[in-house]
Design a protein that fits this description.
The complex is a heterodimer of chains A (253) and B (436).
Chain A (H helix, E strand, L loop, with lengths): L9 E10 L2 E11 L4 E5 L6 H8 L7 E6 L2 E3 L4 H6 L2 E4 L11 H5 L14 H15 L15 H14 L4 E5 L7 H16 L3 E5 L3 H7 L2 E6 L2 E7 L5 H10 L8
Parallel strand pairs in A: 3-8, 3-9, 6-7, 7-8
Antiparallel strand pairs in A: 1-2, 1-4, 4-5, 9-10
Chain B lengths: L1 H10 L2 H9 L3 H25 L7 H26 L7 H24 L4 H27 L5 H20 L9 H5 L9 H29 L7 H23 L5 H11 L16 H19 L1 H11 L1 H6 L4 H27 L10 H11 L11 H20 L4 H26 L1
The chains are: A alpha/beta (253), B mainly alpha (436).
């Protein structure tokens, strides 16, 4: 069980952002502890992806504060987020299709030789090593990632997070494009990362999957936080009613 | 599983195996084949039609190499621009503008200050031209990246603006003659490095080819990546060195014209021996500049973070941004590089002409874009190589030269060049579809 007495890894305090007058995220607060998986649920457009994109530096918040490990953090770009060991696996996978797995894994953080040239051979061998751990079937190291299957592409995205020792991992619909077997692989990986003490934000539409994978689930609707519940306290129906009606279920005693 | 792979391997033809093990780019070979067809085609056509094939002669090929230099230099920059899903329509006009600026600097401004023929004049002139081009390019890039104006519009505007500016700077006059040392950069008998120099370049080239192969093997061994078979490496080494040495033999087989030799001999006080004095051209300086640019740009694109980011932005701009790449600043830098190369190209073009006119480089943008695209740069972004663009420039120039040699008139030349461009892109689309 997650220890929620220590300092939270992440505290999102009163976060707001609007796009052209529409409040995409409206005074939302949320926290995340080491070794914990927090799921974000809600309809399309509820503000889940927008909220985590603020944490990952893709969007800049209009109001509120982000605290990382008990200290106030300034995150204005994806690079800033990386400096706080926040790694994101995007719904759209965010891979450059024309580059190979190694180039994608190290994109923006290439290994260089002593004279400053990119060290392709080293990156390729590092990629081979981490892939052997994450997805032993992964063999297409040299090919552009456009030639890979959804699961293989997902492994590249996950490898990127794992290789750089993320402390906080954001996964936006990590299993949306995957088959049954590959989904299972991702689920096992989440459990393993959890054991290593990472904090994970997980976004998904699959309520049942969320109840299996997460420690807590938060439900958003129209940019507002409906509520955050421990999974052992709620049923699937409770969650669904929160998503659909925007109403908090009566607390089980 | 193992059965399947082994049967698949046995089905593989000898040719497929050859390509796999040498890791040769089939596209590259396709382009070389197209080039060979063009060259032989024009030569044979000349032989049949007029009894003399003028194309495959040292003289023509040497001239072809010089004529390719200007377009080729710019095409290497256009590759970056097109890879990142932009376009630059202004290069021809920027070339004209830079040429005029350099002309003014070396003819009107510097000689009164430094004295005519001062050795600093040509150096300052070149620096001014390259910097001027670089700033114009970076300015375009800033408008595109930070002003969010489409590159097509910014550079279409630039096409008109810089041509007009070139006219204004010199009030439409032609500026000549350029500094004598500067003129050497355009080629010509004096602007070539001679037989001995060419052999040195050739030997250095061969050492580089062999060095690359050996270093590649060492690196693969360190990181346990499968090696190419030895026969494949040997084959690549022989072909590479063979190509370099044949180029040397070719340029050395083109002697100076008799008139220039006698003038030279007179000036140097050399008695012309019986049977005439043979002085080889060797590699032309603009060609060496192109080779230098090609090597520099290839290293930039394949060995540096900058190059990696160019490809990443082209493949998926959003992913590049999310990976922490400053895509806007990259756009400024990419257009800056394009502009600086245009400035360098202006050096070669105006040096070759021996003067600077405001019409210099007119329509070059189309040839440069065509060269990059024929060379396999995809307008969809993310794909393109430097060597491809240079080969593309060579193809364009070969067509042009060939048609002049066999006496096609200008109208037909335009029709052929235009059709070839469309055909080349269509073939490229077919190739990619098949590759998928």
């Amino acid at each position: 069980m997650t220890d929620r007495t220590q300092t939270p890894l992440v505290q999102l305090k009163d976060i707001s952002i609007s796009f052209g007058g529409i409040k995409a995220v409206d005074h939302v607060s949320l926290d995340l502890y080491p070794g914990e998986v927090v799921g974000l649920l809600g309809h399309n457009g509820a503000g889940k992806s927008t909220l985590i994109k603020i944490l990952s530096g893709a969007y800049q918040k209009d109001g509120g504060e982000i605290w990382i490990e008990g200290k106030k953090a300034e995150i204005n770009s994806p690079r800033d987020a990386r400096d706080y060991n926040i790694e994101t696996i995007y719904q759209t996978l965010a891979l450059a299709d024309n580059l190979d797995a190694a180039s994608n894994l190290f994109l923006g953080r290439e290994l260089v030789t002593s004279v400053g040239f990119v060290d392709d051979a080293k990156m390729e061998s590092e990629t081979a090593k981490i892939m052997a751990r994450l997805n032993p079937n992964f063999k297409k190291l040299k090919e552009p990632v456009s030639a890979l299957s959804g699961g293989q592409r997902q492994s590249v995205a996950i490898a990127r997070a794992v290789y750089f020792n993320a402390k906080i991992l954001i996964m936006d619909e990590p299993t949306a494009a995957l088959g049954v077997h590959e989904t299972q692989m991702v689920a096992e990986l989440i459990q393993e990362l959890k054991k290593q003490g990472l904090g994970i934000f997980l976004i998904s539409h699959d309520t049942r999957e969320m109840l299996e994978l997460c420690d807590r689930v938060s439900v958003m609707k129209n940019g507002q936080m409906i509520g955050t519940e421990r999974v052992e306290d709620v049923t699937e129906d409770d969650i669904l009613s929160m998503i659909i009606m925007g109403a908090k279920p009566e607390k089980a005693v | 599983m193992t059965d399947q792979t082994s049967s698949a391997k046995s089905k593989e033809t000898a040719i497929a195996r050859f390509f796999r093990e040498t890791e040769l780019d089939t596209r590259l070979l396709g382009m070389l084949a197209a080039l060979a067809i063009i060259w032989v085609g024009f030569h044979v056509y000349g032989q049949i039609n007029s009894g003399f094939g003028a194309f495959l002669t040292p003289r023509n090929l040497w001239n072809l190499s010089v004529q390719t230099a200007s377009i080729g230099i710019m095409a290497t920059g256009m590759v970056l621009v097109i890879i990142t899903r932009h376009i630059d329509l202004s290069v021809g006009s920027v070339l004209g503008f830079c040429a005029i600026i350099m002309g003014v600097v070396q003819v009107n401004i510097l000689p009164p200050v430094l004295g005519l023929g001062h050795p600093l004049i040509w150096i300052i002139a070149i620096a001014v031209g390259i910097i001027c081009g670089g700033f114009i390019g970076a300015f375009h890039g800033a408008l595109i990246a930070y002003g969010k104006i489409p590159a097509f519009i910014v550079t279409l505007g630039g096409l008109l603006v810089w041509r007009g500016a070139a006219f204004l700077v010199a009030r439409g006059e032609t500026i000549s003659p350029v500094d004598p040392t500067f003129a050497l950069l355009g080629g010509g008998p004096y602007g070539a490095i001679g037989a001995t120099g060419s052999w040195i370049v050739g030997i250095v080239g061969c050492i580089a080819v062999l060095g690359l192969i050996v270093m590649g093997r060492r690196k693969r061994r360190i990181f346990h990546i499968a090696q190419r078979p030895v026969w494949a490496e040997t084959f690549l080494g022989i072909v590479g060195c063979g190509a370099v040495l044949s180029a040397v033999l070719l340029v050395n087989a083109y002697p100076w014209p008799r008139g220039i030799v006698s003038r030279y001999a007179e000036a140097e006080g050399i008695a012309i021996p019986e049977g005439g004095l043979v002085i080889s051209h060797g590699f032309a300086i603009p060609v060496l500049i192109l080779v230098g640019v090609a090597i520099f740009m290839t290293i930039l694109m394949s060995r540096t973070r900058f190059g990696r980011y160019v490809y990443a932005i082209g493949g998926n701009p959003e992913a590049a941004e999310l990976a922490g790449i400053n895509t806007r600043w990259m756009t400024v830098k990419i257009f800056g590089v394009m502009g600086a190369l245009t400035g360098l190209s202006a050096v070669v073009a105006s040096a070759r002409l021996g003067s600077a006119t405001n019409a210099l480089g007119t329509l070059d943008e189309l040839y440069v874009i065509a060269a990059a695209v024929i060379g396999g740069t995809s307008l969809g972004g993310g794909v393109g190589t430097i060597y491809g663009a240079i080969l593309g420039a060579l193809v364009m120039q070969s067509l042009q030269t060939g048609m002049v040699l066999i006496g096609f008139d200008a109208a037909i030349q335009q029709i052929v060049v235009g059709s070839v461009l469309v055909l080349a892109v269509y073939l490229d689309i077919l190739y990619r579809r098949k590759a998928k």
